[in-house]
Amino acid sequence: MADLAVGQVVADREYRITRENLVRYAGASGDFNPIHWNDRVARAVGLPGVLAHGMLTMALAGRLLTDWAGDPGAVVEYSVRFSRPVVVPDDDHGVAVQVSATVTEVRDDGLVAVDLAVKVDDQKVLTQARALARPPKTDGGS
């Protein structure tokens, strides 16, 4: 196992979500709720605009973990709470979602607990985002 320490940031990445991503996610998930593609409907129900699917935001944080671990099967537990919607503007740039993973525990069984910070404009969009994973294997000369 790599030498990991509590407090160590093991992964950090910015993801961009555009309206095109929302259309693709809707097709893959079957979630065609108009608040995810129609400004008029979103505003009519009191939202500030079109929102990213919560599960898409959660998936991006999960992607950071699986990319770090090098294996989707390495993530053995993963949970989040949705705290703030991600508003996606109708432009070519979309919205930036910043995700980072910080080690909170290195366990004797080889698993690592991490907390995920998931933010848009320095505001948390997911809270209590935690995971338990097998860390990536290092060559270490063996």
From TrEMBL:
One of its GO terms (cellular component) is fatty acid synthase complex. GO terms for biological process: fatty acid biosynthetic process. Gene3D superfamilies: Hotdog Thioesterase. GO terms for molecular function: fatty acid synthase activity. Pfam families: MaoC_dehydratas. Residues 8-113 form the MaoC-like domain. Belongs to the enoyl-CoA hydratase/isomerase family. This is MaoC family dehydratase. It comes from Phytoactinopolyspora halotolerans.
